[in-house]
Amino acid sequence: MSGRPVKRSLTLKGHRTSVSLEDEFWQAFRDISKEKEMAINALATEIDVERDPEIGLASAIRVYILNWYRTRD
To answer: What is the pTM of this model?
Structure first.
């Protein structure tokens, strides 16, 4: 486990932003986007639209990933 967040750029609704996640979360995020047959930027935009404005995007992505794996069969 790397433990250290890695900053990567995403494009949300045409605007570039940076998100810092640990490598394991980046991999899980990519896996989910592939399973949903969505581009990672589209999935990030979906999460961004649905999140509480008081919650950072990186936190919202982590919680999304956690909930994704919790609700799987």
So the answer is: 0.92
